[in-house]
């Protein structure tokens, strides 16, 4: 069952031009000139209950704008948008009970109150049944290791501790959908891993639908089988990381250690990437002869000692996609 339906959604920001100085201010009052910026351009997709979807794109691509529309904070300029069967900005109250939202850069916690008091307030605002509330606090405390700072005021928490608390709080009312905007930004590796593991558990075991924006590909690898990639407001890819890798070329890096520097090496199907004398790294052409065959051809002609292969990791797949988009300015071309 589809839980989020986005059809031809566009968001245009309009900003009125201000003219400098006093005369300019007066002029601004009478001439309402404005600039327009299309942050989201005719985007369509749907998300099923229980999915975990990564929403990716370079800076300024329109990710936060889309999340804000899905959570009802912003109103689309055109198109139709439904979350849990409701139009989000018209159903902020009914949807609030079923949505959880975490904005990495902004807090929903009461700064001066101890963490547990924030949780208690959340319980009364969302009218969470006492037993469910206690169970959920206990589960989050365990899985996110919160027990050491439940009685500390939020302002005293480190960024990593605060993010764990933010995520716990967003789940106490058992939402069906959880939106996270850069939930691991600025955190150390241990805190990131903790949060990823927790989100994966919440998605797989509690079947909470997750939509997440991030610039950290490890978040995607750990949590999201499906990605939506946006660029300059356009949706340019909707599918799995694996099939994006296929589409962009399932290339392999081949690093060869030679017994001594063989100088220039020429084997069809392998192009030189890095030359460090006796250690050289090549890129195996895609769709060509299998790498094993290329390496054995190499070994027949050159003093090969050792070989290691490395497939393109998700970071380099996405980097390549962004590079392609930047080079060709393919903002209107679909890759999927
Ligand atoms: N309130 C606003 N008024 C005018 N323009 C805006 C507003 N908010 C965002 N924009 C513009 O819309 C575009 C998309 O912004 P958005 O914040 O959605 O991007 P993003 O993909 O989340 O970027 P980032 O990865 O940098 O957080 C940007 O060019 C931004 O300058």
Structure, explained:
The chain is an alpha/beta fold and 336 residues long. The protein folds into 2 domains: 2-245, Rossmann fold, CATH 3.40.50; 251-311, 2-Layer Sandwich (Alpha-Beta Plaits), CATH 3.30.70. 36% of the residues lie in helices and 29% in strands. It contains 11 helices and 13 strands. The strands form 3 sheets. The protein has a 6-stranded mixed β-sheet with strand order 5-6-7-3-8-9, with helices on both faces. A hairpin with a 2-residue loop joins strand 8 (226-231) and strand 9 (234-240). The longest helix is centred in the middle third of the chain and has 18 residues, at 189-206. The protein is globular and about 75 Å long. It binds adenosine-5'-triphosphate. Adenosine-5'-triphosphate is lined by residues 13, 15, 37, 39, 57, 59-65. It holds the Pfam family ABC_tran. This is ATP-binding cassette domain-containing protein. GO terms for molecular function: ATP binding. InterPro entries: AAA+_ATPase (IPR003593), ABC_transporter-like_ATP-bd (IPR003439), ABC_transporter-like_CS (IPR017871), ABC_transporter_ATP-binding (IPR050763), P-loop_NTPase (IPR027417). It comes from Cohnella boryungensis.
């Amino acid at each position: 069952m589809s839980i989020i339906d986005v059809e031809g959604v566009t968001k245009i920001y309009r900003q009125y031009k201000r003219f400098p100085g006093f005369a300019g201010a007066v002029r601004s009052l009478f001439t309402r000139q404005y600039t327009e910026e299309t942050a989201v351009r005719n985007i369509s997709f749907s998300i099923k209950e229980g999915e975990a979807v990564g929403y990716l794109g370079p800076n300024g691509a329109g990710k936060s704008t889309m999340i804000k529309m899905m959570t009802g904070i912003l109103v689309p300029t055109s198109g139709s948008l439904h979350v849990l069967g409701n139009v989000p900005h018209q159903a902020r109250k009914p949807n609030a009970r079923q949505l959880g939202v975490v904005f990495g850069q902004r807090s929903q916690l009461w700064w001066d109150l101890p963490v547990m008091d924030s949780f208690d307030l959340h319980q009364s605002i969302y009218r969470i049944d006492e037993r469910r509330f206690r169970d959920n606090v206990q589960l989050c405390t365990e899985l996110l290791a919160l027990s050491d700072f439940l009685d500390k005021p939020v302002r005293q928490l480190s960024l990593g501790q605060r993010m764990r608390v933010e995520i716990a709080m967003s789940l106490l009312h058992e939402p069906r959908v959880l939106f996270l905007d850069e939930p691991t930004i600025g955190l150390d590796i241990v805190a990131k891993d903790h949060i990823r593991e927790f989100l994966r558990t919440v998605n797989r075991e509690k079947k909470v639908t997750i939509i997440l924006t991030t610039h950290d590909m490890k978040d995607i690898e750990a949590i999201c089988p499906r990605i939506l990639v946006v660029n300059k407001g356009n949706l340019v890819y909707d599918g799995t990381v694996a099939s994006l890798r296929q589409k962009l070329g399932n290339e392999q890096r081949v690093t060869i250690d030679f017994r001594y520097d063989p100088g220039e090496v020429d084997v069809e199907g392998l192009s030189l990437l890095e030359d460090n004398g006796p250690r050289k790294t090549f890129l195996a052409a895609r769709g060509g002869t299998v790498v094993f065959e290329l390496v054995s051809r190499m070994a027949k002609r050159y003093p090969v000692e050792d070989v290691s292969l490395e497939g393109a990791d998700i970071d380099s797949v996405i980097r390549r996609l962004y590079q392609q988009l930047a080079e060709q300015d393919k903002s209107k071309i679909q890759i999927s």
